[in-house]
Amino acid sequence: TLLRLKIIPVVNENDTVAVEEIKFGDNDTLSALVAGLVDADLLVILSDIKGVYSEDPRRNPKAKLIRKVSYISEEMEETAQSTSVEGRIGGMQTKIKAAKIATRSGIP
């Protein structure tokens, strides 16, 4: 398999062609679950945002970047819920959910 060859898998459900019956939902959660299944050493989630912020940086330019997240607080989850962008699946909310799934599997 690709894993035995040390090839890094890129997990992406193609949102534009996925049919409702087999659609997973969002790539962030899917990638965290796959990382757990393959006993990954690390999960990297790519985004157009530089990281986790104290607030939505698109709405508040003074939002502070949180450089290291060692615990996902309720406040962080609430902030993530308010950052969804219309027309997109996921957003920061699913990235936080994926991080929780990954850390429960021992994946940083």
TrEMBL record:
Gene3D superfamilies xref list: Acetylglutamate kinase-like (3.40.1160.10)
Residues of the Aspartate/glutamate/uridylate kinase domain: 2-108
Keywords: ATP-binding, Kinase, Nucleotide-binding, Transferase
Pfam families in alphabetical order: AA_kinase (PF00696)
Any one GO molecular-function label of the UniProt entry: glutamate 5-kinase activity
A Gene Ontology term for the protein's cellular component: cytosol
Protein name: Aspartate/glutamate/uridylate kinase domain-containing protein
Organism: marine sediment metagenome
Species lineage: unclassified sequences, metagenomes, ecological metagenomes
